[in-house]
Here is the input.
Amino acid sequence: MIKRAFVFDEDVSIRSMLWKIFERRGYKVFTYPRPGACPGTLEFQSFCLSGQACGDFILTNIDIEDVTRLGFIQEQIKRGCKVKNIGLISSIWSESDLRIAKDLRCKVFKKPITGDGINVWIDACEEKKRPIKALF
Here is the structure.
């Protein structure tokens, strides 16, 4: 099974860092400067019709120009996005944004982000995904 991660950030150095982290962990990584650049989102008009997630992770900066803070993720979820592990990056978090992110079950990252912080999150998500094996 192919593992996939989608990364959205205007900063090429952040996209590069996140690409390296996911790639080293065996993920096929798709990086874009903003959500509308991803062919899967079709400018927020995409509906998840396959019944399966297109990827394992979405990690997006919510400070991207022309994107209304949490609007991209809210719309993706509303339209049936099946990706379970969603991380949100911002340099400024309001109480309202934090509440919405929590309600959406998204992981919050405050800039500057670190590779260690991202790896800890990925580890936790991968651990949840592993099947529990019964002892005989």
In short: The chain has one domain: 3-129.
